[in-house]
Amino acid sequence: MKKTGVWLLTLMMAFVVLSGCGNNGANGNSGGKDGNASQGNSAEKATAGGLQAIKDRGKLIVGVFSDKPPFGFTNEKGDYIGFDNDLAKRFAKDLLGDESKIEYVVVEPASRIPYLQSDKVDLILANMTVTDERAKQVDFTNPTMKVATQVLVSDSSGIQSLDGLKGKKIIVTKGTTADIFLTENRPDVELVRYEKNTESLQALKDGRGDGYAQDNFILIGWAKDNPGFHLVEENLEDVAPIAPAVKKGNIELRDWVNTELETLGKEKFLHQLYDTYVKDELGPDANPDEIVTEGGKL
User: Fold this and answer.
1) CA angle centred on 138, ends 134 and 142, rounded to 5°
2) Between the chain's N and C termini, which has fewer beta carbons within 10 Å?
3) CA 140 to chain centre
4) pLDDT-wise least confident of 30-34, 134-138, 250-254
5) What local confidence, expressed as pLDDT, does residue 222 receive?
6) Is the pLDDT of residue 259 over 70?
7) Is the pTM here over 0.85, yes or no?
8) Beta 102-106 vs 240-242: how paired, if at all?
């Protein structure tokens, strides 16, 4: 009886263990589905932004500005327009056959690179100046424009040169090249930071700073509509290229954009966008051939 009891006890324990394994297996299958979904998500993440992934999805997801004319902004109907936003539509048309097959994701200067790195967007078309530091984090395509960074100051500030910025409050938008440059090179300037371009311009208008450092295209157009401000003639930095950007390592999409820019260059498409959005902002003295890098070549 003792042997039989031991044998029965052993059998019951084995049954419990096997039952437990069966339950784990059920959870494992469920987890396997979740795991496959998770792996699928990971695989999707890894290929997010690749040409086939974009085609399978049926839309191009682009990070853009909504408050930065003439590059990216919205009209009274809420439509996304501007130099960069219209270029994004053309990309969607030529890649997917329909310019409406696009999803705009609004970004701020500081969120552009993180949005690429986390696969929230396939492409950034949000007035991103090419710098060595940024090129370590993303892959830039060939450029579309060249831009200078300047400082717009109130007439009452008394600032007439970059030397005059010493001890002054200068507004910047976080993550812009102006923010980075002044932080690294002008410790004698008190920086006042805002997240959005519109917030920065409003702060300047309200007198919360003596000047605003930003791409000159934006400043010139705004100053025309807001008397009492003038541009400091000197550039903060050398003229630099602006280019679309893709996630680091997404060579396939980068090369497609470069080929596309070469094709668009043959029809002077970027010059058309310049005439639509930039020409009136800069005035008749500006030379588009010195600003637009048609064909994607500097």
Assistant:
1) 90
2) N
3) 11
4) 30-34
5) 93
6) yes
7) no
8) unpaired
